Amino acid sequence: MQHRQTQVIRTRIEQTPEMEHAAPMFLTSSFCFNDAEEMRAAFADENDNNIYSRFSNPNVQEFTDRMCTLEGAEAGFATASGMSAIFGSFMALMKQGDHLLSCNAIFGSTHTVIAKYLPKYGISHSYIPATATEAEWEAAITPQTRMIYLETPTNPGLEILDLEMIGRVAKKHNVILNVDNCFATPVAQQPIRFGADLVVHSATKWLDGQGRVLGGVIVGKKELIKEIYLFCRSTGPSLSPFNAWLLSRSLETLEVRMERHASNALYLAQSLEGHAKLAGVRYPLLPTHPQHAIAVRQMQNGGGIVCFELKDGLEAGRTFLNSLKMLSLTANLGDTRSIASHPASTTHAKLTEAERQAVNITPGLIRISVGLEHKEDILADILQALDQA
Ligand SMILES: *Cc1c(COP(=O)(O)O)cnc(C)c1O
């Protein structure tokens, strides 16, 4: 069998009679039928014809097929954003009375969906720390628990959860394991290998990799994806064919990009460790990382995010950001250009101080999304800004 990277690059929309080399863009809202019978059969699900781009589209299908190959998944559905992928995976598979067990260190908007909106539909939740033991995970499962949800590495604390252990717990209790694999990407980690039933992504981040478009995708077990597809095709968070075309091209370079992001990140983390202005540096592949052993076991690289903690807290954080000359101050991550952000005042500002403390978001925490610039230029900008802070 061909290598995964070859399969991703060579999976494509069937060539049209024009014999184009690159995949064409199918910017069409609907598709035609030769006759009444063919149309009837399409609506009756008796053939695989495209009907309407809210249901399916060749560009979206190509992107989804490539993501299934990367994650080792049976099926998938692509959405307009990471949040619509996450929301769709919750709403299609849980009902009133069900319980969601989620790690407490999750993306800010995911926390809002779980804590503010799911209760409106009678779906309860409880949070568990990223460092919970197997016994603690087991104890947190109730007879109503339908799904376990987590991210690893977490955002922005970069804690590593043991996928093999949690996969075992989910299987034992017959609970769906849903993993947000946005930070690691399938190049570094494939949660399905450890027992995940579903993997969700914000394609907006590393998958696009150039800060251009929003997108999301859910891949996993066929019967679960079927439910998600039926929910999404009726409620409408479908991915635009234009965005799908861009994202699908991006997947052809994902592996080489992620290798460089990760080697730049490791260089940055190693170079900053022990700096006089810093209370600590976090990166999964630093031996000082508390879950380093788990990271080495389940990740092929450490990803592109490095976090550090300024000794002098909030004010030093502000001065640091204001002193950067090259790095961008922006809400995104996973770009060719390196980005600095201050989670406590931005992405995680809606959490209470206690909630932030529980997930390791201290006032002086800085998150760097390490780009593809030369590693020495990235380091030099951060070092000169630390001198000012
Ligand atoms: C950005 C992000 C999301 C949400 O994705 P959008 O594409 O912005 O909707 C979800 N999870 C993680 C870990 C993210 O970084």
Automatic annotation (TrEMBL):
<comment type="pathway">
    <text>Amino-acid biosynthesis; L-methionine biosynthesis via de novo pathway; L-homocysteine from O-succinyl-L-homoserine: step 1/1.</text>
</comment>
<dbReference type="GO" id="GO:0030170">
    <property type="term" value="F:pyridoxal phosphate binding"/>
</dbReference>
<dbReference type="GO" id="GO:0016765">
    <property type="term" value="F:transferase activity, transferring alkyl or aryl (other than methyl) groups"/>
</dbReference>
<feature type="modified residue" description="N6-(pyridoxal phosphate)lysine">
    <location>
        <position position="205"/>
    </location>
</feature>
<dbReference type="InterPro" id="IPR015424">
    <property type="entry name" value="PyrdxlP-dep_Trfase"/>
</dbReference>
<dbReference type="Pfam" id="PF01053">
    <property type="entry name" value="Cys_Met_Meta_PP"/>
</dbReference>
<dbReference type="GO" id="GO:0005737">
    <property type="term" value="C:cytoplasm"/>
</dbReference>
<keyword id="KW-0663">Pyridoxal phosphate</keyword>
<comment type="similarity">
    <text>Belongs to the trans-sulfuration enzymes family. MetZ subfamily.</text>
</comment>
<keyword id="KW-0808">Transferase</keyword>
<dbReference type="GO" id="GO:0016846">
    <property type="term" value="F:carbon-sulfur lyase activity"/>
</dbReference>
<comment type="function">
    <text>Catalyzes the formation of L-homocysteine from O-succinyl-L-homoserine (OSHS) and hydrogen sulfide.</text>
</comment>
<dbReference type="InterPro" id="IPR054542">
    <property type="entry name" value="Cys_met_metab_PP"/>
</dbReference>
<dbReference type="InterPro" id="IPR000277">
    <property type="entry name" value="Cys/Met-Metab_PyrdxlP-dep_enz"/>
</dbReference>
<dbReference type="InterPro" id="IPR006234">
    <property type="entry name" value="O-succ-hSer_sulfhydrylase"/>
</dbReference>
<keyword id="KW-0028">Amino-acid biosynthesis</keyword>
<dbReference type="GO" id="GO:0019346">
    <property type="term" value="P:transsulfuration"/>
</dbReference>
<dbReference type="InterPro" id="IPR015422">
    <property type="entry name" value="PyrdxlP-dep_Trfase_small"/>
</dbReference>
<dbReference type="GO" id="GO:0071266">
    <property type="term" value="P:'de novo' L-methionine biosynthetic process"/>
</dbReference>
<protein>
    <recommendedName>
        <fullName>O-succinylhomoserine sulfhydrylase</fullName>
        <ecNumber>2.5.1.-</ecNumber>
    </recommendedName>
</protein>
<dbReference type="InterPro" id="IPR015421">
    <property type="entry name" value="PyrdxlP-dep_Trfase_major"/>
</dbReference>
<dbReference type="GO" id="GO:0071268">
    <property type="term" value="P:homocysteine biosynthetic process"/>
</dbReference>
<comment type="subunit">
    <text>Homotetramer.</text>
</comment>
<keyword id="KW-0486">Methionine biosynthesis</keyword>
